[in-house]
Write a structure and sequence with these properties.
- With about 150 residues, the protein is mostly helical.
- The chain has 4 helices and no strands.
- It is elongated and about 60 Å long.
- The mean pLDDT is about 95.
């Protein structure tokens, strides 16, 4: 029995709670990645792993931008009666940001395992991480959405 505005307001509040959960983590991850090239052992990474590192940094920065973007959107749309636009745009940013965050975490997994146990272990660990993110962040929610439990 809620109005459209009440529903949008509830959706916006829910989305903000979700973003609060991931924003700190993605910011810490990005900050960590941005300092790695300045560490002594960074030379351990070979050419291919440096490419993985750069792709990982790109995904992490992209995730940071997208997961913080709803704040900027809200600021620019504040008091303009554009709640539908705000909720829709923030939802899309969060969705894309989570995808990039999953890729960034997969990349970090590859890099760490490759540095410690070799490239083969890095690729296996990365495939496992990607499988876990894909299942728990996408497949399972979609399954629950369509079939419920």
């Amino acid at each position: 029995g809620e109005t459209e505005i009440e529903r949008l307001d509830r959706n916006w509040t829910s989305l903000l709670q979700e973003l609060r959960v991931v924003q700190t983590g993605v910011q810490l991850l990005t900050g960590f990645l941005l300092t790695l090239p300045f560490q002594q052992r960074f030379d351990v990474l070979g050419g291919q792993m440096r490419d993985v590192f750069l792709a990982t940094v790109g995904c992490s920065v992209g995730a940071t931008v997208l997961l913080i973007a709803p704040v900027g959107i809200h600021r620019l749309l504040f008091r303009r009666h554009r709640l539908q636009v705000l909720v829709s745009a923030a939802h899309r940013c969060a969705f894309a940001g989570l995808a990039l965050l999953g890729l960034a975490l997969t990349g970090v997994t590859v890099i760490v395992f490759a540095a410690v146990a070799g490239s083969g272990a890095g690729l296996i660990a990365g495939a496992c991480a990607l499988t876990l993110f894909t299942f728990f962040w996408w497949a399972l929610p979609l399954l629950l959405r369509t079939h419920g439990m």
